[in-house]
Amino acid sequence: MSINIRPLHPVLGGEVDGVDLRQPLSVEQVAAIEAGMDKYAVLVFHGQDITDEQQQAFSRNFGSLERPDSVSNITRDEDRRLGPDMADISNLDRNNRLFGGNDRQRLFNLGNMLWHSDSSFRAVPAKYSLLSGRIVPETGGNTEFAGMRAAYDALDDAMKATVEDLVCQHSLLYSRGSLGFDELSEQEKAGFRPARQRLVRTHPVTGRKSLYLSAHAGAILGWPTPEARILLRDLNEDATRRDFVYSHKWRQFDLVMWDNRQVMHRARRYNDTTDVRDMRRTTIAGESQTVEQAA
Fold first, then answer.
1. What is the residue-wise DSSP string for 169-235?
2. What DSSP letter does each residue of 256-268 carry, written as one string?
3. Environment class of residue 214 by beta-carbon count within 10 Å: exposed (0-12), middle (13-18) or buried (19+)?
4. Is the pLDDT of residue 1 over 70?
5. Domain for residue 168, yes or no?
6. How far apart (Å, rounded) are the C-alpha atoms in residues 292 and 278?
7. What gap in Å lies between CA 277 and CA 270, rounded to an integer?
8. What is the pLDDT of residue 73?
9. Whole-Å CA distances, 156 to 88, 163, 167, 245
């Protein structure tokens, strides 16, 4: 069966038919999915009741897996619920119990409700993310995606000239700090050292330019902090207007795959102290830095 992709939104997003992610993929299937990612930036695969191992095997068709570590979270190794190659995007502790309302991990995870790009705080930021919905709440918990290609295209010429060569600093210190979460040890703060990223990125295949925005971006090199944050706030507001956003309503066993170089995303609210949301993410590591990092 050949792979078919149906557009979901005028700006981004495609729905994929004709592939079973539990089975090995052919070279032609991998190429079709990669071409779909280049075109749509977000792909939705329905009805994929997969194991962690099958999700990892499917993900490796597109590059090396990025491992969660001290750069990306506050979870100690002994508290992890999933294996070393899986990011746990759930509201469950290692014993599969719901986090309490004041649990430190829960409060940290609320940052996923901010618009962001996965791993933009790494020196080499992520390429793709693949999120599997194993258990999804009946209400709420959507994931929204904003098209950064369209956001760049909508800028006027003067703003394009302003942002073209800017370099931002990205860190979890910025995104979590914006929520008032500052309960971090000195070791954790050291692990969240900022990374430098270009504000405008060019896709290596299509050549299209995108804004590279994220709640993790809190500074622009060479700019006073208040001026930088005003510009970043303005750009984020423009980039996430409704006609640039696809909202995904999860069904159980959906797998959604997106290109972090071309979209931002965020989780939406749900009753996370009563409803289980078991989401498991694999992340494809990026292949290069967007700009040289500080020593």
1. EE-HHHHHHHTT-----HHHHHHT--EEEESEEE-TTT--EEE---TTEEEETTS-HHHHHHHHHHH
2. EEEETTTEEEEE-
3. buried
4. no
5. yes
6. 37
7. 9
8. 83
9. 39, 11, 19, 20
End-to-end Cα distance, the chain: 50
Domain containing residue 228: CATH number: 3.60.130.10
Q: How confident is the model over 35-83, as pLDDT tens digits?
A: 999 999 999 999 999 999 999 999 999 999 999 876 778 888 888 999 9
What are the pLDDT digits (tens) for 262-284? Answer: 999 999 999 999 999 999 999 99
Radius of gyration (C-alpha) of the chain in whole angstroms? 18
Q: Give the DSSP H/E element, type plus range, for residue 37.
A: helix 27-40
pLDDT at 70: 64
Cα 203 to Cα 50, 149, 291, 293, distances in angstroms: 30, 10, 14, 20
Residue 288 in domain: no
Q: CB–CB of 88/75 below 8 Å? A: yes
Does a structural domain hold residue 152?
yes
- Distance between CA atoms of 193 and 185, rounded to whole angstroms? 13
CA 136 vs. chain centroid, Å, equals 18
User: Using CA atoms, how far apart are residues 198 and 207, in angstroms rounded to an integer?
Assistant: 15
Q: Which domain holds residue 257?
A: 4-283
Q: What is the mean pLDDT of the chain?
A: 96
- Helices then strands, counting H and E runs in the chain, come out as 8, 15
